[in-house]
Each structure stands twice: as structure tokens, then as C-alpha cells.
Amino acid sequence: MSDTQTTRRTVLTAAVALGLPAAGIGTAAAAEGRRGPKIGVLLYDGFSLLDPTGPAEVLSRLPGATVTMIGERRGPVRTDTGATAVVADRAVSEVDRLDVLLVPGAGNRGTGAAMQNPVLLDWIRRVDRHTTWTTSVCTGALILGAAGLLRERATTYWAAAPYLESTFGVRYVPERYVRVGKVITAAGVSAGIDMALFLAGKLAGEDVARAIQLAVEYDPHPPFDSGNAATASPQLKELALRLLAESQQ
Amino acid sequence: MSDTQTTRRTVLTAAVALGLPAAGIGTAAAAEGRRGPKIGVLLYDGFSLLDPTGPAEVLSRLPGATVTMIGERRGPVRTDTGATAVVADRAVSEVDRLDVLLVPGAGNRGTGAAMQNPVLLDWIRRVDRHTTWTTSVCTGALILGAAGLLRERATTYWAAAPYLESTFGVRYVPERYVRVGKVITAAGVSAGIDMALFLAGKLAGEDVARAIQLAVEYDPHPPFDSGNAATASPQLKELALRLLAESQQ
């Protein structure tokens, strides 16, 4: 522990000691050389941190997959709280083809701005022409709606359901994720993880999806049982929305 | 939709149309002025994306909370796949006091390097002296162990359990999170979300924690039931570790 330099040998020693496989160390193919699905996650100012990162964690374990964070411009993109930034490694102008597009949700400010941003909407429509799957998490569904990509049914953040229905003429389905053709919408924030596992099964088979669930130890046991808006009291809903509003820029 | 400029008025209109509260728009206190818990998340090269971002999403909704990403240096910190970076907005040298410290896990390379990095270990020990809670997700427990902060019992990533027990002399407990005094360790990757809700309850009361669970719509329904290593077949474990190794740099 006396050396700040970590050599390949010491890392390999640690890897062996951890009992974990060391095969990937230093040998992972460069992203460009990978042959699995090309997954693009759209980041835009004010997105909610878990919306893209939960699915990205799951989908990045697909064999040969690349998960790329994409922004209107390259560089850091701030979340709804303003306190955290994830880097967009590619600009929309650099990305034409994706196997999977994922549009995360945001607070009011971010969702409203993205729904009115023709650069983002045009790009979403253009990329969607060639995707195998076009997906959203949370209020990302409203952005897909603004791009004209929703049909029949969808899900979204529970508080945005009336807006979804009245604006886009689709039926809100209160499930963790809803598939219509190649479009999959997920419910709020954490639902993107469930949706990503479903998508992993479609892309690589259920054995791989189950292994990814184990790889991320997703055996959820929240200490409370209050995540479902259908059974929440009006007071709890009000408090949830107030905490969101107060935490967002 | 014809204007790329999003004015405060149009955003407010969208917020009202969405049916969501607009109180936070443009009025959130600057981070420095907030009076809730100061939460610091340590980022280091090779961390696993969901480990810090799941808890950060949950904890950022605590009243008045600030969640700060902290690195050895300021700037982007890459994940285990190398494909994504989250920005460290503060360097460890800039942060002395935190109410909550969270140390995420990583792949072999990242965990092994962090366990041998005296700058990070010294900082963890120094900050821990004044925290209310010192926490880890996944193999972050091994880093707390290397810093000398584990006692009696802990949890960690399922595949790292034998290493945890043999190296630090603590008993591995296969639960979503394990509390010993002010130290809370969470199991692998996604378990950080469950742990963060528990912690939210301790920091702000169970009503707030329940509201945060609703705010992030955390009503998990994964399409499979394979996230628990205790019931996984050897074949599934092998595949999970192979997918991890192949996806990591």
C-alpha cells in the first residue's frame, strides 16, 4: 500500500486475489472494434441521473456492446439538480446509426426544453429510422412523443401520465415498460433498469439477460414499499413532487 | 417547435402543461447555500456506473441535500467499460467534511488500484472521522476495508465475498445492505439504491424516504428473477463474471 503507482502486475494480483476473472484487464477491444449492438444514450441538459445510467449499466454488459453517451454537443451534460455531469462523448451530428436509442427523462425544465429543441427531435427521428429498438425512460416518452414516435400505448413518469395522454393521444399503461412495435417506453427513473433487462433478453437471449441481472446483483429489496403511484396517498404524491421540485434547478 | 431558444416562459408553460410543480425552476438555492446533508461520492478510475449514480439519484432528493462527485483530481472519471465518464466536480484535496461518504465499487482493475492508492485511502480515513455515515456499494466495501474501516460484518459484491472475509476478517452477510455502527455496506451495483433509501430514512425520516421512493418510481419488477447469487447456478455465475470481464477494460 506504499506505492501510488499501480502496475499491471499488482492489478492482476488483486484481480486474482478477488477471485474475479482477469480476462478483460487491458485486453478489452476498443469500442470501434466491438461487434455487438451499438447503443446510444441521448443526454440533454437537466436529465435525471439514474434514467440513462441504470440502463447503460445493464446494456454495457451485453456481449460486444458499445454504449455511447451522445449530446447536442460533446462535453459534460448537467443533471436536473445541476450537481452532477455525465460526459457526452459524441455529438448528435456525429451519430447516424444506432441499434438501440435510449432517451432518458428529466425534470420539467429539461423535458420542456428538449421537447422544443428541433436539433434533438430531428436527430431522434433520423436515428429512429434505422434502429432495432427506440426506447425511453420516464419523461423521455414525452420527447419521443414530441418527435412523433409514439403510437397506441406508452408509459412514462406517473405524474406525467395525463399530459402524455392529452398531448399525444396514446393510452398510458401503468407498467414498468410498454412495448409497441420497436418502441419501448419505461416508467419513471428506476424503471429503466427493468426495461433494460427486458431489452437485453431481446438482444442477446434470456440466458444472457439473466446473467446480467446477476452481474449487477439486481435482486431488489427496498426497505419500503411506496414506489407505486397507483397505491400512493395524495399526501405522499405531493411530498414526492415537492422534493423533486426543490432538488431541481 | 420552431425555436431553438427556450425561454423561461416556454419552460414554465411546459412545466404547467406537464402537471408537475414548477417551484424549483430557476429558484433552486446554489449548492453552497443548501442546509441539508452534504453527501460526497468518491469517483475513481474504473468505477461501475450504477454504483454511485443510483444512490446519488435517491440522496439528491433529500431536503436541502448536496451530492458532490469527488475524484483524486477534478474532471471526467471513466467507468470500468471505459465508455462513459462522470465528472468529479471536486478533488479530494478540496473536501474535508462530509455528512455522508459513499465509495462505489468497480471492476478488478479499478478496485485493485483504489485499494492500493494511499491518496484515496488517506482521504477516506480523514473524512470518515467526521461523517455521520460512511457507506459503500459493491466492491467499494473492499476499499473501506483497505482503509481499515470495516468491523464485524459487511456485505459486498457476491463474487468478492470470500476475498472480503479472508482479507479483512469480517463476516460477509448476503443482504442488500449491512449496517455496523455508522458504516453501511451495500451488496453489488444495484443494491446501492436499496441502501440509499434506508439511509434517506435515517437522515430525513421514513415519510421522506417513502416519498423519494415514489419520486424515483422505484417499484421494481425485473422480468427475470436471477439477481441473487445464493440461488444462481454455477453456470449462470460463470456467465455473469465472463460478461463482466469482457465488458471491462
TrEMBL record, chains A, B:
Domain (DJ-1/PfpI): give its ranges: 38-197
The answer to whether keyword Lyase applies is: yes
Q: What is its EC number?
A: 4.2.1.-
Please give the Pfam families that the UniProt record associates with this protein.
Answer: DJ-1_PfpI
Q: Specify the species.
A: Amycolatopsis melonis
Q: Which PROSITE patterns match?
A: TAT
Q: What GO molecular function annotation could you give as one example from this UniProt entry?
A: lyase activity
Signal peptide annotation: 1-30
Task: Give the protein's recorded name.
Answer: DJ-1/PfpI family protein
InterPro entries documented for this protein: Class_I_gatase-like, DJ-1/PfpI, INH-QAR, TAT_signal
Q: What does the record give as the organism's lineage?
A: Bacteria, Bacillati, Actinomycetota, Actinomycetes, Pseudonocardiales
Q: Which UniProt keywords apply?
A: Lyase, Signal
